[in-house]
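Summary of Year 1 activities. Much of the first year was spent building the evaluation harness for sequence design. The harness presents a backbone, in tokenized form, and records the residue chosen at every position. We chose the following record to illustrate the format because it has been used consistently in internal testing since the harness was completed.
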């Protein structure tokens, strides 16, 4: 099927459902994007959510079954990028977006590989190891978004990578307890845990020890630094797309601020802005943009 043909209703509906199910992670500002651009962003988002779900969301599926499903998902993705027509309606929507925007398959393949890595590894030795993982789990998403917007230069790509790494790290430190209890994963680097005198059993407590708080404070500072390094990108992609990107950065910084307000204890409670908090974030971003000369 050519992009000149309309996307079948099943594909459009599958994308809409994916956005509705996970709307806490899809920026409120997306509604301000032009309709064709918003639809393509939603198609990318639906792919990302579906890929993560295959790797994480089915507790009944064992590792081998999850890997099998990821292999089948990749095969169907390659079908769309290879001139064929995918079987899954979400990938049909993505195939239309990819052809219309001239997207390459590589970032999508890297994200699938990140979910394979999640099946094989649950601990990270150093911060550098964690950053290499983020090159598969986080930065491909930014490259997808830039591709939809029509940008492929290394300058913008570097700022996008910084933003995505910052967002990924903020999410890790927000979800320390949940990742350990539900997925058996610890993203805090072993070398940093040893340096602060933190043991794995400390992460299973109902409240963080002073050592855990100090460790998380350092990790949050790294996330904030990355988010701020990538923030100028929003001024280099056009006004409405820039607002969309500013919402991502504002959301990540809000998570960092929320963790700080809790004294860097995310074991006792997970900081999350909620629907009202996200609306306030959007209002704040809009207000700051209006104040600029």
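For this record, the design step produced the sequence shown next.
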């Amino acid at each position: 099927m050519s992009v000149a043909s309309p996307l079948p209703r099943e594909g459009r509906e599958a994308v809409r459902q994916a956005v509705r199910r996970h709307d806490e992670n899809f920026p409120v500002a997306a509604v301000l994007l032009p309709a064709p651009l918003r639809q393509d962003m939603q198609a990318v988002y639906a792919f990302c959510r579906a890929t993560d779900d295959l790797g994480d969301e089915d507790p009944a599926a064992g590792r081998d079954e999850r890997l099998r499903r990821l292999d089948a998902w990749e095969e169907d993705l390659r079908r769309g990028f290879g001139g064929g027509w995918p079987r899954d309606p979400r990938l049909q929507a993505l195939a239309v977006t990819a052809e219309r925007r001239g997207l390459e398959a590589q970032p999508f393949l890297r994200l699938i590989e990140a979910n394979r890595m999640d099946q094989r590894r649950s601990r990270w030795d150093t911060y550098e190891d964690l950053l290499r993982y983020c090159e598969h789990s986080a930065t491909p998403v930014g490259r997808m978004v830039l591709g939809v917007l029509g940008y492929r230069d290394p300058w913008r790509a570097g700022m996008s990578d910084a933003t995505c790494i910052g967002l990924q790290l903020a999410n890790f430190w927000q979800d320390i307890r949940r990742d350990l209890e539900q997925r058996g994963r610890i993203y805090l680097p072993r070398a940093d845990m040893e340096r602060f005198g933190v043991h794995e059993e400390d992460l299973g407590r109902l409240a963080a020890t002073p050592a855990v708080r100090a460790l998380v404070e350092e990790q949050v500072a790294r996330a904030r630094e990355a988010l701020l390094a990538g923030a100028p990108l929003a001024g280099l992609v056009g006004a409405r797309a820039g607002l969309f990107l500013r919402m991502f950065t504002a959301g990540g910084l809000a998570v960092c601020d929320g963790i700080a307000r809790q004294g860097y204890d995310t074991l006792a409670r997970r900081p999350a802005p909620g629907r009202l908090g996200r609306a306030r974030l959007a209002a704040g971003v809009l207000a700051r943009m209006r104040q600029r000369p």
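The chain is about 70% helix and 0% strand. Quantitative recovery figures across the full test set are reported in Table 2.
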